[in-house]
Amino acid sequence: MKTQEMFTSHPRNIRFDLDQLTACISACTECADSCTVCADACLGEEKVQMLVRCIGLNQDCADVCGVTARILARQSESESLLLRLQLETCATACRICAEECDKHAEMHRHCRVCANSCRNCEDKCRVMLKAMMTER
Amino acid sequence: MKTQEMFTSHPRNIRFDLDQLTACISACTECADSCTVCADACLGEEKVQMLVRCIGLNQDCADVCGVTARILARQSESESLLLRLQLETCATACRICAEECDKHAEMHRHCRVCANSCRNCEDKCRVMLKAMMTER
Amino acid sequence: MKTQEMFTSHPRNIRFDLDQLTACISACTECADSCTVCADACLGEEKVQMLVRCIGLNQDCADVCGVTARILARQSESESLLLRLQLETCATACRICAEECDKHAEMHRHCRVCANSCRNCEDKCRVMLKAMMTER
Amino acid sequence: MKTQEMFTSHPRNIRFDLDQLTACISACTECADSCTVCADACLGEEKVQMLVRCIGLNQDCADVCGVTARILARQSESESLLLRLQLETCATACRICAEECDKHAEMHRHCRVCANSCRNCEDKCRVMLKAMMTER
User: Fold this and answer.
1) What pLDDT score was predicted for residue D73?
2) How many interchain CB pairs under 8 A, B with C?
């Protein structure tokens, strides 16, 4: 994974386990992509009216995940408190979005796949949060 | 303000005071712009080495404010919990960034102006958070 | 305007007219906000099916305008070719989105206001492009 | 790849080869991540003064790639002209950023890896552009 290779040559001391950090960044960007595709696929469905809430939450989740990836990627002057709040916000956005996507998972495979991306991203954020709890 | 005019024709019932909501969106986008310019101006300074932390926090704050504006702008299927966490994250990013910008405010006017944008955005987010507290 | 005040203390020589530059950044961020609100308001309309194309173009336009504002805000190591392509892309996104919003302007005031934001943003981008043409 | 699986259940007819489309989206998001990490790693280097241009271009490239991924992900109401301009802008941002990263590739492995991400993303954008040329 390219991000991990880059962190090994990062001039500052990265205080996270690199596997956990890069897994979380990957999960965030993958979830952002999934949510953007899911919002668009929902928008293209005939019964879009039923999917309005799914589209709205997909958009919010895509935005939050995208920014979480960027803040995780910036380790030179990382602020614990901000990172913790961002991870908490992201885990919550992912959980809410997954719950909504689940409702349409039987009908729409894009919702089923998206729910999986959201769950995976929530997990990876919580792993990071747990690692930060026990930090010192 | 265009955003406010748009909310008055929004099909759903907006549960926020429109003045507060649009003031918060404006403060977020203005702060995002200020932080992006400040990061870039710091990067162009001769003594960039002294401003590394300011640049990093400016970037984080610009990203968080930008997404906060978008989530605030989406009122059709807004989720209270997500919005509250996002506003909390944004207020914190703004406070941390303002404190760092303050350190360079004497030397660099762009840092002084940026600190003001951050403080204003933190305030507007806290007004929204307070309004949400007393919601029910 | 805060962005303009910041550019006057920017350490590098800004090669644009500051009024034009800051007007273009403002127009981009305002248009991004308008498009995000319009997409959300359309999504909340009963006849959302009729507004699918409007929502899709609003989202694209919001994203393109947001990034254009950021690239314009970074003047320390600005690249003419990239900026020109970005402004051209943005002007086009705005024109296409305005044309779609116009179709719903009678019915939905949010579309009418959004079309105005898009037109204003297209204009400001074209002013910048023209200024860059005559650059040397 | 999740995005590809999602496109196979997309309600609209996707007019692109799904392998090419998902490869381009992946390349854009990977490049966005790489550029964000590289900007941050450069910012953390002792001789940050030498890397100012690299940081600035990394930031622009990260933003452009991120938005390109989103516009590619929205296929329900995709506009050929906008997509073509966006891909052209992205390919150019990647080329310029790769050229700058190359200058520091001997000294900094993060710049070497980032240059590779940029080249890969430029290639994938050009493949898409070529496919669009021969469209009809």
Assistant:
1) 98
2) 121
Instruction: For residue C48, list chain A residues with Cβ-Cβ distance below 8 A.
Output: 48-49, 52
Q: What phi and psi, each to the nearest 5 degrees, are found at residue C46?
A: -60, -45
Structure tokens given for C34: 């308008």
DSSP H helices, D45-79, are 52-73
Question: What is the pLDDT at residue C1?
Answer: 74
| The pair of three-digit structure tokens given for residue D64, joined into one six-digit string | 């452009």
**pTM for the structure as a whole:** 0.98
Distance CA A68, CA A92 (A): 12
Q: Does D5 touch chain C (CB under 8 A)?
A: no
Dihedral angle computed from the Cα positions of residues A34, A39, A45 and A50, in that order, rounded to the nearest 10 degrees: 120
Whether A33 sits inside 8 A of D44 (CB atoms) is no
CA distance A76 to D44: 5
Give the CATH number of the domain where residue B21 resides. 1.20.1270.360
Touching chains, C (3+ CB pairs < 8 A): A, B, D
Q: What mean pLDDT comes out for the span D127-132?
A: 97
Least CA distance to D54: which residue of chain B? B43
State the Cα–Cα distance between residues C92 and C84, nearest whole angstrom.
12
Residue A64 in any domain: the answer is: yes
Q: What is the ipTM of this complex?
A: 0.96
User: Looking at the domain assignment, is residue D10 inside a domain?
Assistant: no
Q: Which residue bears the tokens 């879009």?
A: A48
> Could you tell me if D70 lies within 8 Å of chain A, comparing CB atoms?
yes
Tally of domains in chain D: 1
Out of C53, C56, C74, whose CB is closest to D60? C74
Backbone torsions φ then ψ of C23, nearest 5 degrees: -65, -35
The mean of the pLDDT values for chain C is: 96
Half-sphere exposure of B109 (CA within 13 A, CB side): 10
Q: Which residues contact A22 (CB under 8 A, 6 or more apart)?
A: A1, A3, A4, A7
Residue D131 structural domain = 16-135
How far is D125 from chain A, CA to nearest CA, in Å?
Answer: 17
Is B36's CB within 8 Å of C73's CB?
Answer: yes
Q: How far apart are CA B35 and CA C52, in angstroms?
A: 34
Structure confidence by residue, pLDDT tens digits, B11-32: 999 999 999 999 999 999 999 9
